[in-house]
Amino acid sequence: SLWKQSGIVLHTHLSLLQTYYKTHHYSLIMSALAQTFTATSASALASRKSSSFNARSSLTTSSSSSSSSTRGARLQTFARVDGGVGVFGNKAGMTQIFTDDGLCVPVTVIAVKDGNYVSAVKTADADGYNAVQVAYDAVAEHKITKPEVGHLAKAGVKPMRHVEEFRLATPADGITVGQKLSAPEMFKEGDYVDIRGTSIGKGFQGSVKRHGFARGLMTHGSKSHRQHGSVGAGTYPGRIFPGKKMHGHMGNETTTIKQLKIMRVEDDCIIIRGNVPGKKGNLIRVAPAKIVGKNC
After folding, report:
1. Cα(229)–Cα(142) distance, rounded to whole angstroms?
2. How many percent of the chain have pLDDT more than 70?
3. CA–CA dist 19, 230 (Å, integer)
4. For a tag site, which of 136, 149, 161, 201 has the least CB within 10 Å?
5. Is-above-0.85 flag for pTM?
6. How do residues 271-284 score in pLDDT, each as one tens digit?
7. 41-73 burial, b for 16+ CB within 10 Å, e for fewer?
């Protein structure tokens, strides 16, 4: 780029060069070229610095303006939305009932203890999202933290062990703080619900039980009965890809079973067709099922 600039300088000062050439002053020609070349290089370098400074200043200005605009904006949260407000209960166990048609149906009984009080109602205008906070399972005051005691007391609710929210797409109508949610008022026979709970922990398990892998031969000299097998090449990629199905901890995870049918509803229990996650005594979350075109 500097040689191109020097060529431009030579072409620009052609008259000056011709004058010096006629007088045969070679030293004067070289000194004039050196001065012109130095001045041109300095101006080009100054222009480059000014352009880069302007670019950095514009980038800083744009970033500061964007950060200031973002600082003033409200934080938006995106989370899973429930089909409606539900209740909590505890898994009592499984049994069977007979329908009017004489069909034997396996069911799970969910016991509802003292609780299911509305401890807070959140709106998009005040909190950024719509939700109803429900408290469940009454306990002694010393078994929960003092901030939780104060929060529940402010809502007019006695101490509860579990406090959780039901996120909604629209604001909750007809629900007030301190209201008791009754299962017969929230659900009726024939409704479909989504059940969420913690699955039974199985501890450390192999790939055959954890992922249903096929085992190797048990006879004919095989020494790989229930082993995992190859996990990839050693040369390339030379590593194990994230998410590879292998042996490890199994169970004890939050699990949701969708669209289970309610067979019966009473004040102290909800009878659900089929099985629900967890062992006896586990906390169960019962919410209206999300059905496309109806509530989602």
Report:
1. 52
2. 74
3. 85
4. 201
5. no
6. 999 999 999 999 99
7. eeeeeeeeeeeeeeeeeeeeeeeeeeeeeeeee
